[in-house]
């Protein structure tokens, strides 16, 4: 049988396959090296970095919930300088595309970061994390307003020639308006979705189970919601999507691709099954062979909609 073509193109970048990992769930450098051959990933996505070091939220920061987990890490990281000096040399050796996720307090800080990253040859793409729900107080705010998001994306766009990806969450104000302005302002792909706010209580202690009280819900519990956002965004906008939210196996990944996603990312599942991304990749390839689908272009967006839905197009 002829070989399956798993490659996908976003902007000018060709990714060898559609399987990647979700920011913050796959370490920042070598943490998953014993389990995953990084060169087999379509792309490696880093944990979100910020301009300055952040200590994150107090413990406990995670709690298991039905079919998922709550987290409120609070973007703990060592900052941009450390990333460039200590992480990039390792990441430069990985034989796949590197997507660097960043967050900042506003356009000026984003631009400062992007100017530094733009000079890093090894960085293929910048993912703007405009959607972390676990940040409070001064500093990074949760980008809720379309104009604000548009300003950020445009100022970043004007300062980098790298592939520009924006990550959104349903928690962001008017989601579809924001998605649209993001695209109009120069984003070349959307990562959908970030976590959805939730909470859990320890009834004996009568205390919240994470110190931040609320946290971001992830895992299979949010998969149908994530899938719906990918589907609806693809119906509305002509923009490549990296789908994520509860993807735990190849069937889940196939759902997102059939709904229209160019790429798919494993997130929370990496904590349970560290080699999940490889299982998804192998499972997808096998599924395509068995069902005689020869390329990602053939599978992507191939959802068969009922007549009564198509009638109202
Ligand atoms: C522990 C944890 C840390 C995360 N950290 C980040 C982060 O730093 N930046 C980011 O954009 N998303 C972060 N996310 C969100 C994931 O990248 C992903 O969008 C979300 O968890 C949904 O996918 P999943 O259900 O497969 O985990 C984090 C998620 C978890 C569970």
Give the topology, please:
Layout: E1 8-10, E2 13-15, E3 19-21, E4 43-45, E5 62-65, E6 68-71, H1 80-91, E7 97-102, H2 107-118, E8 123-129, H3 146-157, E9 163-168, H4 175-184, E10 189-192, E11 196-199, E12 201-202, E13 207-208, E14 214-218, H5 223-236, E15 241-243, H6 250-259, E16 263-266, H7 269-272, H8 276-290, H9 296-299, H10 307-310
Parallel strand pairs: 3-16, 4-7, 7-8, 8-9, 9-10, 10-15, 15-16
Antiparallel strand pairs: 1-2, 5-6, 6-14, 11-14, 12-13
Helix pairs in contact: 2-3, 3-4, 5-6, 6-8
The structure holds flavin mononucleotide.
Flavin mononucleotide binds at residues 22-25, 47-48, 69, 71, 73, 75, 101, 129, 132, 167, 194-195, 218-219, 222, 244-247, 267-268.
Descriptive overview:
The protein has 313 residues and is of the alpha/beta class. The protein has one domain (8-57, 74-196, 220-310): Aldolase class I (TIM Barrel, Alpha-Beta Barrel), CATH 3.20.20.70. The protein is built from 10 helices and 16 strands. The chain has helices at 80-91, 107-118, 146-157, 175-184, 223-236, 250-259, 269-272, 276-290, 296-299, 307-310, and strands spanning 8-10, 13-15, 19-21, 43-45, 62-65, 68-71, 97-102, 123-129, 163-168, 189-192, 196-199, 201-202, 207-208, 214-218, 241-243, 263-266. The longest helix is centred in the last third of the chain and has 15 residues, at 276-290. Flavin mononucleotide (FMN) is lined by residues 22-25, 47-48, 69, 71, 73, 75, 101, 129, 132, 167, 194-195, 218-219, 222, 244-247, 267-268.
């Amino acid at each position: 049988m002829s070989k399956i073509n798993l490659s996908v193109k976003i902007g000018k970048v060709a990714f060898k396959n559609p399987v990647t990992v979700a920011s913050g769930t796959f370490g920042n450098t070598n943490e998953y090296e014993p389990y995953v051959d990084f060169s087999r990933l379509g792309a490696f996505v880093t944990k979100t970095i910020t301009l300055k070091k952040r200590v994150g939220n107090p413990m406990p920061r995670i709690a298991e919930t039905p079919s998922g987990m709550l987290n409120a890490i609070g973007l703990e990281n060592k900052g941009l300088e450390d990333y460039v000096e200590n992480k990039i040399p390792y990441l430069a050796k990985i034989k796949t595309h590197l997507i660097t996720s960043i967050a900042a307090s506003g356009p000026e800080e984003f631009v400062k970061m992007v100017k530094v990253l733009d000079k890093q040859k090894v960085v293929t793409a910048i993912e703007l994390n405009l959607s972390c729900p676990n940040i409070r107080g001064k500093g990074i705010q949760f980008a809720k307003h379309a104009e604000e998001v548009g300003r950020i994306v445009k100022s970043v766009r004007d300062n980098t020639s790298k592939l520009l990806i924006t990550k959104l969450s349903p928690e962001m104000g008017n989601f579809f308006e924001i998605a649209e302005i993001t695209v109009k302002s120069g984003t070349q792909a959307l990562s959908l979705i970030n976590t959805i706010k939730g909470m859990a209580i320890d009834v004996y202690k009568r205390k919240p189970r994470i110190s931040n009280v609320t946290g971001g819900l992830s895992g299979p519990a949010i998969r149908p919601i994530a899938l719906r956002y990918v589907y609806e965004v693809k119906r509305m906008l002509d923009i490549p999507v990296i789908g994520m939210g509860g993807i735990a196996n190849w069937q889940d990944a196939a759902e997102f691709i059939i709904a229209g996603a160019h790429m798919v990312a494993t997130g929370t599942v990496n904590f349970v099954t560290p080699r999940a991304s490889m299982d998804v990749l192998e499972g997808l390839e096998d599924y395509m062979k068995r069902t005689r689908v020869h390329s990602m272009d053939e599978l992507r967006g191939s959802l068969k909609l009922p007549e009564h839905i198509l009638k109202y197009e």
